[in-house]
Amino acid sequence: MIFGETLRQRRQALGLTAEDVVRQIGHSASKISRMENGRHDFKEADLHRLLDVYGVRDESERDLLLDLARAANERGWWDAWSDVSTKTLQTLVSLEDMAQRIRSYEIAQLPGLVQTAEYTRALIRANSPGKSEQDIDRIIELRAMRQQRLMRSPGKKLLCVLDEVTLVRPYGSREGMRRQLEHLISLADDPDIGFNLVELNRPNLPVQIGTTTIFDFADGQLPDIVYIERSGGGLYLQEEHEVDEHVKGFDRLMIASLGQRATVRRIQDHIKKFR
């Protein structure tokens, strides 16, 4: 889907329609559409012809795009958990894997990448009471794998803006919530993980962006991509003006929130309340 969107943007930047491309390379317009919508495998011979039409002459740039296409054709490691994950979640996991930096703000719960298994279990039980324990175990496995891959990726950055309400509202036992907050403190020692805090009682905070994750990619591999969570499912934004709007909103929230040291002190204050 992401690589297909990259092809679409290349075509539109040249002012070409799908029919214009068809006239030059002979494919059907429906095939071009399926490729751009991520519903068709990318064959290397087809891509070489498309890149010629789109004027991509630089060898390093062509190699980068071809590498992206090969990755798009492969089954992701997360496919092993397709029984308990939606397509939207699988896309989120794939972006986490590819991104060089992840910026996250959640309004109702702690971000999945910093949750303990105990917290995750309680959260799922509270919000999806019909889910079986077997499925919950599988979801926790997937979340643990996401966290492990983050920690094993040198240079990958995670920046979380935490809403203080998520530190106050417990999931599970008091002891389990204390262990979750202590886990946040331990993560704060990692130079690649940053925490800011949106204070509960501070007025006029710009929190209207809602639950938002921004993915940045190394070496211009892909443009920034934004994921926003809505009732009934999430939405991925790639249009430049929409992405820019959410990035600016996130930046405003960062400026209005507590920095790392003050955030750690506030988390320590909340830990005392769960003893």
Looking at how many chains there are and whether they match, the oligomeric state comes to single chain
Structural class: alpha/beta
Query: Which sequence of SSEs, written as H and E, runs from N to C?
Result: HHHHHHEHHEHHEEEEHH
User: Average pLDDT value?
Assistant: 91
CA gyration radius, whole angstroms: 21 Å
Number of DSSP strand runs: 6
Strand order of the largest sheet: 3-2-1-4-5-6
User: How many strands, what sense, and barrel or not for the largest sheet?
Assistant: 6 strands, mixed
Distance between the termini: 47 Å
> How many alpha or pi helices?
12
Question: Which regions contain 5 or more consecutive residues with pLDDT less than 50?
Answer: none
Helix content: 40-55%
DSSP strand content: 5-15%
- The rough form would be described as elongated
Could you describe the 3D structure shown?
The chain has helices at residues 2-13, 18-25, 29-36, 44-53, 59-73, 87-98, 117-127, 133-151, 165-168, 174-187, 240-256, 260-273; strands at residues 101-106, 157-163, 193-198, 212-216, 225-230, 233-237. With 275 residues, the chain is α/β, with parallel strands linked by helices. 23% of the residues are buried.
